[in-house]
Amino acid sequence: MNFTNKNVVITGGTTGIGLATAKAFINEGANVWITGRNADNLQKAAAEVNSPKLRTVVSDTSKLADITILENAVAESGNKLDVLFLNAGIAVFTPIEQATEADFDAQFNTNVKGHYFTLQKLIPHLAEGAAVVFTSSTVATASNLGTSVYSATKGALNKIAQIAANELADRKIRVNIVSPGPVQTPGLENAVPAEAKPHLAAATAMQRLGDPDEIAKTVLFLASDSASFITGTELLVDGGYITYGLK
């Protein structure tokens, strides 16, 4: 896939899937902006990527004012966006009885409100025929214990993406969803106890956790001309996580 001189924005690009995808786009010739809440983490990511094609923007997806900072950075570049990868997300796993309002608000603000308004603010900056990809999750359709709030945010994202695909079709902008299963990322490390990870791996048909690079390759496919007739679709990249329990 060739993304030479294409312009890409990735929210939540400092670690994990976002960082792996930034590297993959740059390796294919793209100019990439990544966002993150923490300037130090952005500097570390930039040092790891080590490419003049990478730009960083300190922007907290959960805050509308910070989304405007990202919008201004794109506008000031004078370039239209060819790819928007809405990837920022947080997860807190807890039973319904123990969930707090703070955890509920934090997840919906980042995972839903942030994606919604980032898309809204950047729609005028999308090129004709651009691609938008949302990071959702298999939990949007699974019913795992302790995931009520996180799963609800991902279910909401899926519906937003499907409607966006219809609303933006007249500009030939495609909108799709990538739904990873359990993937070895810092986010997983923070959200899931170490003793639970073997159980997650065992719940997949492939009996392992995914790698961020595997998700990145899927995002590049959905953003490429190879997926030119795909829009409004959720693509599971889960090692058989959803179907394995049904065998």
Describe this structure in words.
The chain is α/β, with parallel strands linked by helices. β4, α4 and β5 form a beta-alpha-beta unit. α4 packs parallel to α5. The protein starts with 6 loop residues before the first strand and ends with a helix. The mean pLDDT is 95.
Give a summary of the structure in a few sentences.
With 247 residues, this protein is of the alpha/beta class. It is built from nine helices and seven strands, in the order E-H-E-H-E-H-E-H-E-H-E-H-H-H-E-H.
Summarize the topology.
Layout: E1 7-10, H1 16-27, E2 31-36, H2 39-49, E3 54-58, H3 64-77, E4 81-86, H4 101-122, E5 126-135, H5 148-167, E6 174-180, H6 186-191, H7 197-202, H8 212-223, E7 234-237, H9 241-244
Parallel strand pairs: 1-2, 1-4, 2-3, 4-5, 5-6, 6-7
Helix pairs in contact: 1-8, 3-4, 4-5
CATH fold label: Rossmann fold
Assign the structural class, choosing from mainly alpha, mainly beta, alpha/beta, alpha+beta, or little secondary structure. Answer: alpha/beta
Number of strands: 7
Looking at CATH, the homologous superfamily is: NAD(P)-binding Rossmann-like Domain
- Proportion in helices: 40-55%
Query: For the largest beta sheet, what order do the strands appear in spatially?
Result: 3-2-1-4-5-6-7
How far apart, in Å, are the first and last alpha carbons?
35 Å
Mean pLDDT: 95
Which stretches are poorly predicted, pLDDT < 50 over at least 5 residues? none
What is the name of the CATH class? Answer: Alpha Beta
Rg, rounded, reads 17 Å
* Helix run count: 9
Largest sheet: 7 strands, parallel
Shape: globular
